[in-house]
Amino acid sequence: MHLADLQTPALVVDAESLEANLAAMAARWPGETLRPHVKAHKTTALAARQEAHGAVGFTCATIREVEGMAAAGLGRDLLLANEVLDTRRLGRVVADGARVTVAVDSPETIAAAAAGGVREVLIDVNVGMPRCGCRPEEAGALAARARTAGLTVRGVMGYEGHLQAWPDPEERARLTDEAMTRLRAAHAEVGGDVISGGGTGTSACNPWVTEMQAGSYALMDSTYTAAGVGYAQALHVLGTVVHVSPARPDMPAYAVADVGLKALGMDHGNPTIPGAQVWFCSDEHVTFAPDDPVRVGDRVLVVPAHVDPTVAYHERMHLVADEEVLETWSVDLRGW
Amino acid sequence: MHLADLQTPALVVDAESLEANLAAMAARWPGETLRPHVKAHKTTALAARQEAHGAVGFTCATIREVEGMAAAGLGRDLLLANEVLDTRRLGRVVADGARVTVAVDSPETIAAAAAGGVREVLIDVNVGMPRCGCRPEEAGALAARARTAGLTVRGVMGYEGHLQAWPDPEERARLTDEAMTRLRAAHAEVGGDVISGGGTGTSACNPWVTEMQAGSYALMDSTYTAAGVGYAQALHVLGTVVHVSPARPDMPAYAVADVGLKALGMDHGNPTIPGAQVWFCSDEHVTFAPDDPVRVGDRVLVVPAHVDPTVAYHERMHLVADEEVLETWSVDLRGW
């Protein structure tokens, strides 16, 4: 199928850029040292490509992602890097033969893991972002509690999410060092082989983790590009121009394409369109001022500001090379 | 099933508030004068309730919505209030017996409607928001062109989207009057029975349309509540507290629930939580400071800032009364 035959809006992935991104991250973090985060693409077919590049384990954010990865035969070592209280579904995945490790940071989440049939955990440590994770000085006691509950404590995790898109790379590296000092202090109390953390934005300045949880590098978005992380924009939302308004005395020229805020994660702001200024998005439309005139029926490639919530809106993504659709992948890890 | 048995995050709809909202709008716009917009809820089961309150026709924003409504037996009079160039799927819906009217605003969209087997159109008129829609003075010529192409022109539509949440109600009414003056001028040139427009925010100050396209009133969001439109918040995203951090010298107390930006439309900003201050959202979490202490495992009800893109993330919504789940509805009109 040709790109022109796709109904829009449609997620399209440039095959060459994707492959280059996967190869570059795998070169920096080879084999088991990379634990790609599937929340950024929610697509088992893409995860299989990451496995082909050497990844053994994967990071998940939801129970659905864990279930889907296991069902796709990618369950050799799944980390649910998130706290959960209802662990029954995870227990079933374990019983079916997948290896599932869950983040815990409280007596309640430890009890839930043990009660649900989960066998392995990481102690989740707050390394500076006010979200989940215990304080470093609590980590040792939580690890002891988990072991008493019959769980194997594989080590620690700590996500420096607040630093991923820090503008200045040197300051980002310094702050990552500080954050990982907290994580290493916790690890000294917890033990185990695993220090898990990091993301695309700190993947070049975080040598302290034993496994890197990067996800966005595969597809990328304009926020990470602006942060200078060095991966190619592989993902676009393909749209069709449905309206053109020529310049008039009371209004400059603008055009409208069928890529709206239900096709884009909007928490990082408007998307960008190369060769145009984006004015605003509404449910099913983006209004933009193109540098050069466009016509109704033209196609446009829209760059999302945040890849993860963009992908989560779409049922499928199309792998494309030279305007040909090579494969169509189901975004099969959506929902909860 | 009890509310406490729902896995989270989950869309929950208060049955009493929904019913009150549907009744109130149907009282103001009875029978055919209300053409509810399904883009706000994407749920045929909810549309059936709107039909039970007297609605005959419905407004859609996507081809998928048209197809799904027709398949659910709700295709007596469907308006696709959006420009489309690939009309083949719409033609099939018409051939299968549904009545489908499509918005057109250019020679290209008229040609597409005629070529695709669509028989009826409205001329879409720009009434002040730079999106789709022709200029009022172009409407007559476009109508003639559509008739020459063999299409029935039922009238005009014009959506004053930029006024829906205008803060001052009197100014909103005055600006709506101005916008509808443009639409009525176009209608005078176009003819036909239909003047379609409006939304929840202008439903009390737009007496000029023959059919009101309101959608958000059924479920509501914090943006429309702030605009004082007078409908009840029927929709919440139910979450579970997964982490609690007590007050410390360097950080006030906060909690984290499993309702993140993949469960919420974020283009209107952060959600709200009654009895708490929301700090920020990440993919699967909301971090908030509760007025009164909460515990891990507690449930929270999160109010989205924008209902439409919130619903579009969810596979189902649960109709709830007195903490009992009465029905579970598939959000079956998602995607394109």
TrEMBL record, chains A, B:
One Pfam assignment: Ala_racemase_N
Molecular function GO terms recorded: alanine racemase activity
Residues of the D-serine dehydratase-like domain: 234-321
Top-level lineage group: Bacteria
Enzyme nomenclature, EC number: 5.1.1.1
Alphabetical list of SUPFAM superfamilies matching this protein: PLP-binding barrel
Matches recorded under InterPro entries: Ala_racemase_N, D-amino_acid_metab_enzyme, D-ser_dehydrat-like_dom, D-ser_dehydrat-like_sf, PLP-binding_barrel
Entry keyword set: Isomerase, Lyase
Keyword Coiled coil appears in the UniProt entry: no
Keyword Nucleotide-binding: no
Family: Belongs to the DSD1 family.
Name recorded for this polypeptide: Alanine racemase
